[in-house]
Amino acid sequence: MSASLPLSALLSRVDAAIVDLDGTMVDTLGDFAEALNRMLRELALPAIGAEHIEHMVGKGSEHLLRSVLGHVLASGGQAADAAQVESLYPAAWVSYQKHYLDINGQYAQVYPGVVAGLQALQAAGLRLACLTNKPTEFAVPLLKAKGLHGYFSQVFGGDSFERKKPDPLPLLKTCEALGSTPARTLMVGDSSNDAQAARAAGCPVVLVTYGYNHGQPVRAVDADGFVDALQELKNA
User: Fold this and answer.
1) What are the backbone angles phi and psi of residue 211, rounded to the nearest 5°?
2) Alpha-carbon span 110 to 128, nearest angstrom
3) Active site residue ranges
4) Crossing angle of helices 61-75/82-103, nearest 10°?
């Protein structure tokens, strides 16, 4: 772990923590691939590989669907302009919602060390919230299915506020809900989205090294620290 402050010092200066979901606590790439390819089959469009999806996740379902549609149209030799994507989007959204809810969590795994890390944050007396760009109706059942929901007093999705990460608004609103100030609320995430939102909100931020960062090296992101597993918080 490399940080401007030791991890123990960071934790001693916070009263609460906000934890991201996809790529931070749960590897949901399998869920995304299954639901998206079921959607694409319904739309008579080419399939997409998980290696492409991995670079598209993290900015909300709307961004994900538009990125996938643009990619498969281009790979299939069809026009991939914005108008064509938008013409397909309404049907794609309905199909994706249906299929994602059908398989939510079935192709996803909790990352090693997550439970120990959450237990360590709780043991340190921190109030915890989960904040994700994933729709709330997807996030809550996933947390429950994976046995993680009980660690959080609050769960907010990408549809909970007017704007999504990397905008700071969701973090500021989550701090309010936790009764904490941004400067004393740790953001734990996996991408530049989380770090940018934290910096803009005034929250310290630690990133995991194993998640989804839009295909870019996560250690190049401006953060206060990096952990290879959330269980490193247990030993801080």
Assistant:
1) -90, -150
2) 18
3) 20
4) 120
pTM: 0.92
Asked if 111 contacts 230 with a C-beta cutoff of 8 angstroms, the reply is yes
Q: What is the pLDDT of residue 79?
A: 60
* Average pLDDT estimate for 56-68: 91
What CA–CA distances, in Å, run from 121 to 23, 103, 133, 182, 227? 19, 30, 22, 17, 14
pLDDT surpassing 60 at residue 169:
yes
Let me know: does 92 contact 132? Beta carbons within 8 Å. Answer: no
Predicted local distance difference test score (pLDDT) of residue 214: 82
Give dist(CA 108, CA 175) in Å, integer: 28
Burial (CB count <10 Å: 0-12, 13-18, 19+), residue 51: exposed
In a 3-state reduction of DSSP, which class is residue 18?
A: strand
* Alpha-carbon separation of residue 206 from 4, 21, 113, 116 (angstroms): 11, 14, 15, 16
Domains present along the chain, CATH in parentheses: 7-27+109-235 (3.40.50.1000), 29-103 (1.10.150.240)
Listed residue (20, 34, 40) closest to 107, CA to CA: 34
Percent residues over pLDDT 70 in the chain: 96
